Amino acid sequence: MPSTLLVIDFQEEWRDKNSNYYLGQFKSQLRNASKLVKHFHEKQWPVIFTRHVDVGSISAFADGTKSTEVLPELNVAVSDRVLTKNRISPFYKTDLENILMEQKPDELVVAGIMTNLCVRSAVSDAYDRDYHIKLVTDACVSDSAEVDRFTFKDLKKTRPEIDFVKTRDVISKK
Asked: Is the pLDDT of residue 55 over 90?
């Protein structure tokens, strides 16, 4: 399997201006994630989405609410997997590890929301499982560009085998 795309927590809660978790504008990151999804669909390569749900919540990230839906711009296909996670890492108590073991991807391409938390945790856990990782920096977002820069810098320093790429680098791949 050439590649698997892991799209982390692109959900309505993050762009709801009335939410305590509102991240502001992340249109370019969403546009880039959408381009990645489209590219993987065209190649018929696997796409895995995660969505964060807070167990027992009656407001933010409450299951069954619009806040936990994957953003419609990402055009989730019937063939895509959508995993629900209740913690920061998408590997914790989900089927992600089993799905990846079945797919046996040559590389794991990662994009997502909360660079410093959920994305970093996914990348760290995948790294510890010996996956070759491409982190798509222009398709990741947190609550500030400073936090994103620090997270990428720290990951580069501590996990030099990770490839830090832009959306165009992934899409131009044959």
From this structure: no
